[in-house]
Amino acid sequence: MSWSVRGKSSFLVYLLALALLWGNAYLLLVNHPAAYTLDEQSYLRMAQGSFDVPVTHRYRLVVPLAAGALAEAAQGFANLISPSDKPPLGISFFLVNVLLLAGAGLLAFRSAVAAGAAAGPALLGMAAMLTCGAATYVTGLLLVDSAVVVAVAALYYAVHARSGRVLLLAVVLGPVLKESFLLFLPLAFLCGQFVPWWQRLLAVAASLGLLGAVHWAIDAQLAGAATDSVANALAHGTSVGSNLRWLFSPRGLVICGGVYGLFNLVVLAGFWGGRAARGQWLRPLRPGATLLLLLAVLAHMLLSGEMSRMLLLAGPAVAVAIALIVDRHPLFAPLRRLLIPAAQPSLP
């Protein structure tokens, strides 16, 4: 496939990803409660240039700064029509998050195709990821998770497509988007053998240097910021036990199980039919790489204050699994005939 054709098809898939996200997220945005959550308050202040916020949020500056810059530009344009003293930060966060998460959806689609799924099932897998409750939540509210989802999707795509450049880029930029992306580095090291080991080490060194520079630049403006970081890490460690108990409680299982909704049934159906039927989609899924990704997601959940939201990080793996199940499992043969119709003879 030529670059021009591939570029056009990728652009159309990206537009579809935007369409899948836009309506639900915008409805959540315009019906936002009057009071902001603690997370949203922090990111709003960061978007306005103040980093004196809880240390958990302080260094996740990419999305807030991008939203702040977009809001300032939009305010200048809006003032030509109707002057206002408040930049439109809500819609700016919405636009940044939707554009980023649509990119993650495109990468999930490309991962499914690289794994061997046809375009129709790959689009269905992407839809499962982008229409889940967590995707609506992080794009409709003033949050920053969309950026790290892009990094995880890029890393997973790199493993499936054996793309060294994408893997190195994800490793370098991921920790700056969210420090806990470091939990995904075992995936890059154990499943990224197509990239020389010294290049992967150099990428990790660059990412740690970049992360350290961000911390230094922000800590220099705030007294006691370095000790705050240590205390925050210890506090997160103490929450693991309570989060684990909540996860396996009836309430936790119902809430987390509802993130991907009825698409869970597709994954469960994939295990029906015996070893041969399972093997048709499990082998191209790259079970080792997928297991490492899911373990990193579990670690994120146990360290997080909102465990169900972190399940969006598993979205790339969920999308590829659903695409491969629909594409290859015998149970979905009737659906395949709709998604992948036989070639029709050309008209004279």
UniProtKB/TrEMBL annotation:
> What does the UniProt keyword field contain?
Membrane, Transmembrane, Transmembrane helix
Transmembrane among the record's keywords?
Answer: yes
Give TM regions.
Answer: 12-29, 89-109, 116-136, 142-159, 166-185, 197-218, 252-273, 285-303, 310-326
The identity of this protein, by name, is DUF2029 domain-containing protein
The species is: Hymenobacter elongatus
